[in-house]
Amino acid sequence: MTITARDNAVFEAGIKLGALYHQFVGSPVSLRTAESLEKAISESISVQPYVKSISVSINRKMIEENLSSFGYTELKGPMLDVDAVIKYPGYEVNVGIAYKDGYPLMFIKEIREA
Amino acid sequence: MTITARDNAVFEAGIKLGALYHQFVGSPVSLRTAESLEKAISESISVQPYVKSISVSINRKMIEENLSSFGYTELKGPMLDVDAVIKYPGYEVNVGIAYKDGYPLMFIKEIREA
Amino acid sequence: MTITARDNAVFEAGIKLGALYHQFVGSPVSLRTAESLEKAISESISVQPYVKSISVSINRKMIEENLSSFGYTELKGPMLDVDAVIKYPGYEVNVGIAYKDGYPLMFIKEIREA
Amino acid sequence: MTITARDNAVFEAGIKLGALYHQFVGSPVSLRTAESLEKAISESISVQPYVKSISVSINRKMIEENLSSFGYTELKGPMLDVDAVIKYPGYEVNVGIAYKDGYPLMFIKEIREA
């Protein structure tokens, strides 16, 4: 079947989420440093091709619950709440990562012509 | 627009390539250990949902050209040649990573009903 | 204070454990693929300078307890049992990673002249 | 041989550099986003035990030389200039990462009683 602009838009969106997750999960983080990590993750992914916008939020309550006796934890998948819009000529794809049913899920929220 | 099975198939394919790249690039590697790294990468990604098949090849010539005086290098994006088939109900998507025009590119090779 | 061969031996040992942990934690893994991941991790770290020997074991029971409904999980720090010997001219340092008191701890087991 | 506080101080310093390198190398980066990545890396490592201070600088000239046609690159080892002080009861260890002789080298700068 012919590969369409829509296919490429959705494919690029998937790449970004997989990259974000496996690049940054594991990073040491605390309540004090969560904000700079959120900013670095969103800016880092935003330089990749076709990223129109991205917001990254790290769940503070989960950080707190996971703090070691040394006062920090590591970024874990379930802590991530991500919303990103990928724009490929002709299409915008809105995707996200969210914690649902016990897992950090990646999913397509909306596809629109643009 | 309604999100289709085809969209989800392509999205999942993108996730796998982004994950593979950012999880394993940076791993120390030499000519002697390239094979075990290839096997671990392909098996690791193969346990994720919807992966029908995957093959990973690390360019030996590039390893050789990049060897440090200590006799090893790190896995770099351009060294990767990946071919993967993602199967989502109704569709099979064949995607890959290959070195083209100076970059490690991720691309859709084929989409078929299945 | 003068930096000694012993200091460098211990420093190199620390580098290897930090590298191993942050390179491979997060890798998708299942009971079926744990062995190839163990082998790739130990071979990957073994190519780095001053590594005399290394063994990596991934806790199968923890994999099982962490399996998602998709039949896999991600390599987590607590799953790792690592034993490594770093040899720097004049000294051998035996270090490890093990799960103790709820955390994956990195520690020096023994330092010997060699 | 008895493991001393000095050994542990140096060991912890090695762990931090290995962790930093393998967690963040590979992150997409551009001239515009280098600053937020530097800040996130230094803050992330600073939450780990025994880190007294750390500064991370990403070489802007190397970013520029490595920019893809998409206007970004990935953080590579040679781009890193790191200076960190690890404080373990009784000792302070000053370590760094710097680009020398074609490689990103990790080394001990100074050990002092403290």
TrEMBL record, chains A, B, C, D:
Enzyme kind, highest EC tier: lyase
Gene Ontology MF: a single term: dihydroneopterin aldolase activity
Location of the Dihydroneopterin aldolase MtpD C-terminal domain: 4-109
Keyword Cell wall biogenesis/degradation carried by entry: no
Binding residue positions for substrate: E12, M106
Pfam family, one: DHNA
UniProt cross-references to Gene3D superfamilies, sorted A to Z: 7,8-dihydroneopterin aldolase (MptD) (3.30.1300.20)
Keyword presence, Lyase: yes
InterPro entries, alphabetized: DHN_aldolase_MptD, MptD_sf, MtpD_C
Subunit-structure text: Homotetramer.
Pathway(s) where this gene product acts: Cofactor biosynthesis; 5,6,7,8-tetrahydromethanopterin biosynthesis
Enzyme Commission number: 4.1.2.25
Function: Catalyzes the conversion of 7,8-dihydroneopterin (H2Neo) to 6-hydroxymethyl-7,8-dihydropterin (6-HMD).
Family, similarity comment: Belongs to the archaeal dihydroneopterin aldolase family.
Keywords for this protein: Lyase
GO biological process: tetrahydromethanopterin biosynthetic process
Protein name, UniProt field: Dihydroneopterin aldolase
Organism this protein belongs to: Methanooceanicella nereidis
Enzymatic reactions: 7,8-dihydroneopterin = 6-hydroxymethyl-7,8-dihydropterin + glycolaldehyde
